[in-house]
Specification:
The complex is a heterodimer of chains A (325) and B (715). Chain A has 13 helices and twelve strands. By secondary structure, chain A is an alpha+beta fold. Chain A folds into two domains: 50 residues, 2-Layer Sandwich (Uridine Diphospho-n-acetylenolpyruvylglucosamine Reductase, domain 2), CATH 3.30.43; 268 residues, Uridine Diphospho-n-acetylenolpyruvylglucosamine Reductase, domain 3, CATH 3.30.465.10. A seven-stranded mixed β-sheet of chain B has the order 3-5-1-13-10-11-12. In chain B, strands 7-17-16-15-8-29 form a six-stranded mixed β-sheet, sandwiched between helices. Chain B starts with 23 loop residues before the first helix and ends with a helix. The relative contact order of chain B is 0.14. Classes of the chains: A alpha+beta (325), B alpha+beta (715).
């Protein structure tokens, strides 16, 4: 690990002031479940680490009477599971998929959303876009069994590993951001971006901005679920995941739908076409399966990951059935 | 002359009972110190410069910057310019520094220039192996396979195999080396060979073997990968010398552990096997290949266990530029078992026979111990409710529902496990306590406990009156822990030493009891005249008569009397559910029925089997050393994508140990390896039974399961 300066600001403005104007200068430390590993492996080498755990504004989950909620970026995964277990299963299911009690206890919502890819080429030091010595992309010709099947025309081929991203996209949440230029909000769907250069990031943040929280619109009457296709129940990443948020009328017809996939693309993947197709339908196994097919209609397998298309279809189908149940 | 036998069943006070391991409290409380935990005064940390290339020639090495760094105490080039490197992660140079970060910075400051050469790291596709990486195939023939296949009425042909996997010891390889003076070295390694490592280091360092002291109290897993002291261990001793004798600690980082500290070789085979309509197996033919790294790998024993009368085998040893293989529990057996039992299960399916009936029909072909296999098969079938749950292939076992298909699979295995050479000193003290000193090691399997049980049983005293002293090569030498030889070796030497020490005590006290030594016995804390229980004295009173001179006897294995044997059988049956929409395999129940002669401690014996089954689920479903053909490097040298089975993945285990007549009189036989052999085959067969298709290669990952199902649909 390179030497670095450690700062522990007490206010948001102090924190933002400590961040740099480009990404190599500073990294934000929240739960610390991943950043330190990245630094020890020299994958990320910030000159300054800004601890935000002492900033009170970033803590807490506020449930509003109208069914909306505002979640601080420092809310831990365990706190999210507790807060939304009864009302928004899409969120708590996603949290429960993180099967390490230690990570659930320390890991934060902000950290999950800004989590760096798990791509094994990136993690081995080949850069965010995983290029070999000659500059060729390693993923398309390499072992891409866990890589993207959607949004994978390059140059990014990794998958977003965010557990909560798909749920927030399906719920049409907004990401609250604070930076040197003040506050702003962005739709969860727009927050995640596929980088086009090694120095880019997988989210819409400037180097001197941090995620301060998430606002979730009213979930009254919303049925939601997350389904992960996992090889292992014990600590492991899902092979594909889907989050679904539905509103249904008395006749059980879908009136509103949000569907987003995880672990299939460089960002949580908003399956908007599948969601709008679902509106007006009564959920049956066949309808759910068809929605899965529509969600994956644009999928393209790399050399080793065709199976993930099937898994993602199943994830969508099962998430819809689970939500509608 | 003493009789060297084991006590009969009714007379055993400790042997065969369920006794918790004696080092358990120290381990769960953190008091037990592993090599990883040990911090010696003034200790330096060693870091290794490793080749990033799988195949390269070293052009130049510049250590000057590292040497100048503050806190760096010694720098050594391990492999100099001109050396050809054959795997990524191989050791090039090493540094010792005052702390780990400084050592790491120094290692990164060493500049190595390589000339990259073409590499080959993935051998699953035999046709892709370049000529330079193939050895001349070997062929063996028995009987008349051509004629037998002509006469066979049912023949199946398919491909079976497993990828390369890692040992993944939770405590990585490493040691601490320090020169206590100019000529004497003290080493704390994590090793399977306490008595053997000293000589190995001494040869490398050209000092007398007696000048190397080895000490290890606890170790965190070896599985066959921790016999040698290793190049990094020798380098630590050299760096220590350069640093004025200061202790130098080297523990491999997880990525290095996975890349260089041992693999289990891959094995792939195209198999053809034939039978008569009545199920009698008549012929076997296999063309196999596999790799264990730069030296290739030999042929596993195909066909495994089954003495098929007509066989033809052809094997290709393939070399790869991957960190070399090491022994992995029961070397070659799991691979041979998977290939053989997989092919036989497929043959049974084609014969429309229940595989249980099929193996029972052919059971004589398993040789001299076929009766044991039969008993074990019937016991396992009862435990897993085979006849109730099993349905013909692809129909889905009882409990299948929707996309969830249940299946059962079986396998059987063998292993030797005869006791190794072992010596110990058994001392009876005048306070009644007993010390057993032996240069053995406890790999976490219960060796300490077994020593105490055997000695306490012999002396008729509680086990807490015995203290074992192990993990030190200044104690009488005892074999390394490999080949499942430890329990036989240490039980044999402890029993003989204890019997001799007890007889010496009898000689000492017999006159005061107005009898002779041959008329005495030690039972329940007393020493008494055989047949006259009233003529007795307590164990403590007897030992008090020793005064200032304790009794010490040397126990040996092998030695007089038949205390140990070799050769065990075992049967495993797996009950799985496969989600045919996702290809995900879940364990329901997993049954292991195992014999291993006389069981010293039922609890630690069962625990050995549980551990083997957990590891078995891991290699059947999850574990694979994934190599990148482009970079030549391992892609998953971590515990994130090198997937190990967790508690929620293993399902329910049931273990039955065969004991009593026919087993106990054989004496203790090793158990560390046999139950690791069958899991791959049993689980693979269960998946085939559930889904109706054979997934050819372990691990049985969702992509492979879905591909096998899709292939079947394509026809």
């Amino acid at each position: 690990m390179h030497k670095f300066e450690y700062a522990s600001p007490k206010t948001l403005d102090q924190a933002v002031a400590l961040l740099g104007s480009n990404w190599s200068e500073a990294e934000v430390l929240a739960g610390g479940t991943d950043l330190l590993s990245l630094m020890k492996d020299f994958v990320e080498t910030p000159k300054r680490v800004v601890n935000i755990k002492d900033i009170p504004d970033l803590k807490g989950i506020r449930m509003v009477r109208d069914g909306s909620a505002r979640i601080g970026a420092l809310a831990t995964i365990d706190q999210l599971i507790d807060a939304f277990g009864k009302t928004v299963p899409a969120i708590s299911d996603a949290g429960m998929g993180i099967t390490s009690p230690q990570i659930r206890s320390m890991g934060t919502l902000g950290g999950d959303l800004c989590q760096r890819p798990r791509c094994w080429y990136y993690r081995a030091g080949y850069g965010l876009l995983a290029k070999g010595e000659n500059g060729d992309a390693l993923v398309p010709n390499g072992d891409n069994r866990y890589h993207a099947i959607l949004g994978n025309r390059g140059p990014a081929y990794f998958v977003s590993a965010s557990s909560f991203g798909p749920a927030l996209v399906a719920l049409k949440a907004r990401i609250l951001i604070h930076g040197a230029g003040g506050k702003r909000e962005v739709d969860a769907d727009k927050f995640f971006v596929a980088p086009t250069s090694d120095s880019g990031r997988e989210y819409d943040l400037r180097p001197n901005e941090i995620v301060v929280g998430v606002s979730i619109p009213s979930t009254l009457g919303v049925r939601s679920a997350t389904y992960e296709v996992r090889q292992k129940e014990a600590l492991d990443w899902p092979l594909a995941a889907a989050s679904v948020a539905l509103k249904m009328d008395r006749s059980k017809k879908v009136t509103e739908a949000g569907i987003a996939l995880g672990h299939v693309a460089p960002t949580p993947w908003n399956a908007a076409e599948a969601a709008s197709w679902l509106v007006g339908k009564t959920v049956t196994e066949d309808v759910a399966a068809e929605a899965g097919k529509i969600a994956l209609a644009g999928a393209m397998a790399l050399s080793r990951n065709a199976y993930k298309i099937q898994l993602a279809r199943v994830a969508v189908k099962r998430a819809i059935l689970k939500a509608a149940m | 002359m003493a009789e060297y036998t084991w006590p009969e069943e009714g007379k055993r006070k400790h042997i065969g009972k369920r006794i918790s391991r004696v080092d358990g409290p120290a381990k769960v409380s953190g008091k037990a110190k592993y090599t990883y935990d040990i911090i010696r005064p003034g200790m330096l940390y060693m870091k290794v410069v490793r080749s990033p290339h799988a195949h390269a020639k070293i052009v130049s090495i510049d250590t000057s910057a590292a040497e100048k760094m503050a806190g760096v105490k010694a720098v050594r080039v391990i492999q100099g310019p001109g050396t050809e490197i054959r795997w990524a992660g191989d050791e090039i140079a090493a540094v010792a520094a005052v702390d780990e970060p400084t050592a790491e910075d120094a290692a990164r400051a060493i500049k190595v220039v390589y000339e990259k050469l073409a590499h080959f790291v993935n051998e699953a596709d035999l046709s892709a192996a370049p000529a330079a990486y193939r050895r001349q195939p070997t062929e063996q023939k028995k009987g008349d396979p051509e004629a037998a296949f002509r006469e066979a009425e049912v023949i199946v042909e398919d491909t079976y195999g497993n990828d390369v996997m890692c040992h993944c010891c939770l405590e990585s390889h490493g040691l601490i080396a320090e020169w206590v003076d100019d000529n004497n070295l003290l080493v704390h390694p994590s090793t399977q060979a306490v008595s053997g490592n000293g000589g190995e280091l001494a040869r490398a360092l050209q000092i007398p073997a007696g000048n190397v002291r080895i000490k290890m109290d606890h170790m965190g897993g070896g599985f066959g990968s921790k016999f040698p002291i290793d190049r990094w261990g020798i380098e630590a001793a050299r760096l220590s010398k350069m640093a004025g004798g200061k202790p130098v600690k080297v523990m491999l980082e997880r990525d290095a552990e996975m890349a260089v500290a041992g693999t289990r070789p891959s094995a792939y085979a195209k198999v053809k096997v034939g039978a008569k309509k009545d199920g009698t197996i008549v012929a076997w033919e296999s063309e196999s290949w596999g790799s264990g790294g730069p030296a290739g790998t030999g042929m596993p024993p195909y066909p495994y266990v089954w003495q098929i009368p007509n066989t033809m085998t052809r094997h290709h040893s393939i070399m790869t530029d991957v960190g070399p293989q090491r022994a992995w529990r029961a070397p070659n057996h799991p691979q041979a078992c998977l290939v053989t039992m997989g092919a036989l299960e497929d043959l049974a399916a084609k014969l429309n026979m229940d595989p249980l009936d099929f193996v029972l029909k052919n059971i004589e072909m398993t040789g001299a111990r076929s009766g044991v296999y039969r008993d074990e098969l019937l016991k396992a079938a009862e435990m897993i409710e085979w006849k109730k749950i099993w349905r013909p292939r692809g129909q889905g076992g009882v409990g299948s529902s929707g996309s969830l298909k249940r299946g059962l699979g079986l396998s059987l295995h063998t292993w030797g496990g005869g006791g190794h050479a072992s010596n110990c000193d058994v001392t009876i003290n005048s306070d009644g306590t007993v010390d057993v000193k032996m240069g053995t090691q406890d790999l976490g399997v219960g060796t300490r406990t077994a020593i105490r049980i055997v000695a306490a049983e012999t002396f008729g005293i509680p086990i807490d009156m015995v203290k074992e002293h192990i993990g030190d090569n200044s104690f009488p030498s005892s074999g390394s822990s490999g080949g499942s030889t430890t329990i036989g070796g240490i039980s044999g030497s402890t029993r003989r030493g204890s019997i001799d020490a007890l007889n010496m005590l009898f000689e000492k006290i017999a006159p005061s009891m107005n009898t002779t030594a041959d008329k005495l016995e030690a039972v329940d804390g007393t020493i008494r005249v055989i047949g006259s229980p009233n003529q007795s004295m307590t164990w403590k009173q007897a030992c008090a008569k020793l005064g200032t001179q304790p009794i010490t006897a040397r126990g040996k294995n092998p030695g007089p009397g038949n205390l140990t044997s070799a050769g065990v059988c075992g049967v495993q049956m797996a009950d799985v559910t496969v989600d045919i929409e996702t290809g995900v395999v879940k364990m329901n129940n997993f049954v292991s029925v195992q014999d291993c002669g006389l069981i010293i401690d039922m609890k630690t014996a069962e625990s050995q089997v549980f551990g083997a089954m957990i590891m078995g689920v891991g290699y059947a479903l999850y574990e694979e050393k994934i190599m990148d053909s482009q970079t030549g490097r391992m892609l998953n040298p971590n515990m994130e994508f090198y997937k190990l089975a967790g508690l929620t993945d293993i399902g329910n285990f049931k273990v039955h140990m065969m004991t009593g007549k026919g087993y106990d009189e054989r004496g203790p036989i090793g158990l560390g390896e046999p139950p690791t052999v069958s899991p791959g085959a049993a689980i693979s067969n269960a998946v085939a039974n559930a889904t109706g298709v054979r997934v050819s290669t372990l691990p049985l990952t969702p992509d492979r399961v879905l591909e096998a199902l899709a292939k079947e649909r394509r026809g």
